[in-house]
Amino acid sequence: MKDYKRTLVTAALPYANGGVHIGHLAGVYVPSDIYVRYLRLKKRPVLFVCGSDEHGVPITIRARKEGITPQEVVDRYHGIIKQSFADFGISFDIYSRTTSETHHKTASEFFRKLYDKGEFVERESEQLYDEEAHQFLADRYVTGECPHCHNEGAYGDQCEKCGRDLSPTELINPKSAISGSVPVMKKTKHWYLPLDRHQGWLKEWILEGHKEWRSNVYGQCKSWLEMDLQPRAVTRDLDWGIPVPVEGAEGKVLYVWFDAPIGYISNTRELLPDSWEEWWKDEDTRMIHFIGKDNIVFHCIIFPAMLKAEGSFILPENVPANEFLNLEDRKISTSRNWAVWLDEYLKDLPGKQDVLRYVLTANAPETKDNNFTWKDFQARNNNELVAVYGNFVNRALVLTQKYFDGMVPACGELTAEDKATIAEFKDVKAEVERLLEGFRFRDALKEAMNLARIGNKYLADSEPWKVIKTDPERVKTILNLSLQLVANLAIAFEPFLPFSSAKLRDMLGMTDVEWDRLGQTDLLEAGRQLKQPELLFEKIEDYVVEAQVQKLLDMEKANAEANYTAKPIKDFIPFEDFEKLDIRTGIVTACEKVKKADKLLCFTIDDGSGTPRTIVSGIAQHYQPEALVGKTVCFIANLAPRKLKGIESQGMILSAENFDGSLSVITTERDVKPGSTVG
């Protein structure tokens, strides 16, 4: 591999329309931070760039819904996102935003250069237009009936019920989400990046030149490049964004997909106004994009085409994109609030940033989708961080405190067992490096944890708590080597778990961390006074994770309730048909579960006739039988009898189905005689 002078690392710009959740952290920000921290430990020049993506239609929709300006929306979420990253130790050199003056200038200049070079094509097309609001409608501003599942609340780009991608013109009975009026087709002009012109060199550059890319990245690029690439619009009709800097483009802004990746450039320029070009235009710079799989095409095909068209920029050397992280076996959904938000996580589990970083790295969706569960989170904390890493560190420090007043003892003559242990952990450095250089963070974490496993085995085999009684000098060597291993752990885990590594270094009195010293046995000199040992990690109890699962379920239920819409009314029927139903009231005199039937309850009803009526109803999962005794219920009295589990049911109990599927038996507001008619 070429020996680059510097490395530019970019992390996907999070969209300032909401907070950051664990899927974002696992997919992009923890792996990029691990890599950057590793490069810094190696003393390699590196720049870590990110910022908020603040333009686009979803932000204008949220602003309109909340009755505030788009700027107020992005100001709120930019602050939340930036703080969440800081709280979790994501060590950007700059975290800026696409509403900055520097970004507006940089994006405008970029577009204008391509425009002046003739790198765009102009096209006129017909798009939906709201005559009442006097504006063209972005896809999300058009709603209507989905042509596939007939959901009446589908958007012009996607139906959130069936998940199908749509175009606004596919919707049945489309209407404007702004005014509610029926939109019309109207001509408009836009500029397009002709990706078809770039297909040849892109094929050679990726398919021949970057076969080392992750299989999921390479495969998605190959799939796209084997089709005919089409020109892609770089402008749109909208009033929120960067104005298109050419005459005749009034009311048009740069499309957010074109504007956003330029944010990497503008943020670098903001940080280093005099030397930013060195990081973007010097062939001795290696650029790495960390993204999620939904951004692969943009960062591997479209953004490189933009850079190539401009003519003076370098292209990315690697794009280690991750797949998606699911939550409790279901896809994370921000609209349905099925997510674990970082700001809320720290309120519920304060001080446990490294636990989440560890679990997300151990479960990293590097080449396929993976799953986060709270039970696995608990198990990895208790069985690995506490029982392996924390246990070894604590034993080594506590024994040193107990036998040598917390002072590092001198190392004496090494036994064969000592030498074997040293040889084993010296190999870990090379393996961790190899895996990190190959963007295999999950496997690199396993190797770092192996150091703790080696230490635990060494202490268990050496048994210093027994040897101290007969050979205190031997215990000095055992604990010296154990403490050297602990110091190695402080270095090895620094890229992965920066908070606990800092705590451990403080206990050891290690003021500096040098990656190149990983694997050495002289990190702590004899006679060094150590601080009182503290636990690095603590056990997480069942009730903690059970509360988190319940919180998810409660959020989902509240979200479903807030977004509830009644089912469509059935077709009209003649009044005579309704008159055929004989709906009566009756008092429940007895109720019991039907044997061998989980859903059925058997009611005995006083219907006013003098003869008890039996009705079997499928509501056993919603009521305890005894809770219904004595209630006055409504039932259909003239349904033909039918047998259920051998019991003849003489009618139907009426119930209302709530938004969450729960049932509520229909009762009367005041006491009425059994057998009273309902109508």
UniProtKB/TrEMBL annotation:
Enzyme class, UniProt record, top EC level: ligase
Residue ranges of the motif 'KMSKS' region: 331-335
Chain residues that bind ATP: T334
Protein location: Cytoplasm
Enzyme Commission number(s) from the entry: 6.1.1.10
Source organism per UniProt: Pseudoprevotella muciniphila
Positions annotated to bind Zn(2+): C146, C149, C159, C162
Keyword vocabulary terms for this entry: Aminoacyl-tRNA synthetase, ATP-binding, Cytoplasm, Ligase, Metal-binding, Nucleotide-binding, Protein biosynthesis, RNA-binding, tRNA-binding, Zinc
Pfam family, one: tRNA_bind
CDD domains the record matches: Anticodon_Ia_Met, MetRS_core, tRNA_bind_EcMetRS_like
Xref: PANTHER family: METHIONINE--TRNA LIGASE, METHIONINE--TRNA LIGASE, CYTOPLASMIC
The protein, known as: Methionine--tRNA ligase
Location of the motif 'HIGH' region: 14-24
Any one GO molecular function term: methionine-tRNA ligase activity
GO BP, one annotated term: methionyl-tRNA aminoacylation
Main localization of the protein described in the UniProt heading: cytoplasm
HAMAP family attached to this UniProt entry: Met_tRNA_synth_type1
Gene Ontology CC annotations of this record: cytosol
Cofactor binding mode and count: Binds 1 zinc ion per subunit.
Cofactor(s) it depends on: Zn(2+)
